[in-house]
Amino acid sequence: MSRAAQTQRILHRTDCYLLPFLSLLFLLNSLDRSNIGNAETAGFTRHAGLQPGDLNDSVALFFMLFVIFQPVGAALGKRVGAARWVGGVMIGWAFLTALTAFVRTRAQLLTLRMMIGTLEAGFYPTTVFYLGLFYTRYEFAQRLGMFFGQYAVAGAFGGLVSWAVFKIFPSGEEEAMRNGNNGSGLYAYQVMFLLEGFLTLVVAITTFWWLPLGPRSAWWLQQSDREWAEKRVLLDRAGADQDGEHRRGLAGGEEEEGEELLRDGEEEEVDVIVAKSTVGGEGALTRRDVEEAFRDWKIWWILALNIASSVPGAAFSVFLPLVIKGMGHPPLTANLLTIPPFLCGAFTLWGITYLSDRSHQRIKYILIGLAINLVGLLLVVLLPADALASRYLSLCILLAGSYIASPLTVAWLSGNISEPGKRAVILGINGWGNLAGVVSSKLYAPEYGPSYHFSFVVTLALVMGAWVGYWGFRRALIFVS
User: Fold this and answer.
1) What pTM, to 2 d.p., does this model score?
2) How many structural domains compose the chain?
């Protein structure tokens, strides 16, 4: 069998057995992160004896801990192994999500969300690093898009689950009595937290036997395929074609082609990369990896842009139900109406990451995504408050561009760093882009509702700044090359 046929078989089986499962994990991760916004439409803070601003404070503290522990979580995830790390932290936050149903004080809410943020901190960089063990650089963005798209799908799924739960267990804004259908005496939001915590727990337990250490122990591959599954990725990371020929250097601004940008010109030979890998493809984390990651000026430029461009995605993953409710829709309808905008975000992301892989371009498509985002934001800001249908359509456009920059930035970083240890730390640092969640929690505070006009204007300015910054970064890459 030819190498090409073997590669296609490996990709097909990995796409069938690994990618959907990791996507499910990220969907549940995103759902447990954002469900507090859906809960608030059912009167969460009011029934729990809290103030509306407590919810925003809990979101801010969640993201603060989430950001602080990103590099630590990424390093621990790499050292412990993705399967064991991901399964363990998921079990932890599943129980904490369920406990949120019984919050009765501000301190309890803040403590639980901080603990969830700490546990979830290493999940995304660990799973992205793990996914990168199975795919070469120009197979990666499309798969990462499918994976990251679950962030948007989780919003749609959360809206559907919330609508169904709130329909069956009426409570919250409609001022219905405690549900008497099954004698549980639970509010609708409590049922939602318990249900989502249970789903996360069941899937988390499955990870321990579903996820292998890496390609060399992938149970869905034949023994003869496992060695090549790992080697072809290592060869690609080393900047060589699979026949051993080095890729050409940077030319004409094709920043994703050629030598590794974050190594400042230092080349790594293929045999060194292969030799440093351990069983499963996960190399040891060294002090040199950490030092080089923190010294690289490019990651700090990208991090600033990542924070600004991620504000819409972070904000609307939590607050979209409240924004739509602020347009005058009742809670049930508001949760149902979150589904189309989130699906717009997912499908647009999947289409653009596909084109990105096909064209071997990253920053170009980041700029396209941010441009879509800007169109939606401009429409929301400029349209009159009573133009409900037009403003809702604007939200669909806005969400369509909200999830593109982050995964393509990760794909750019991952595709340009051959050293596994440094790549893991860089992805952890890039995870500090979740500071956007802290910004959004204050930006979409109750005092700016129900129209959130000021919030949209500031978001517009941040995204516009991100577009200019990514354009400037691309020009800088051309200049230094």
Assistant:
1) 0.74
2) 1
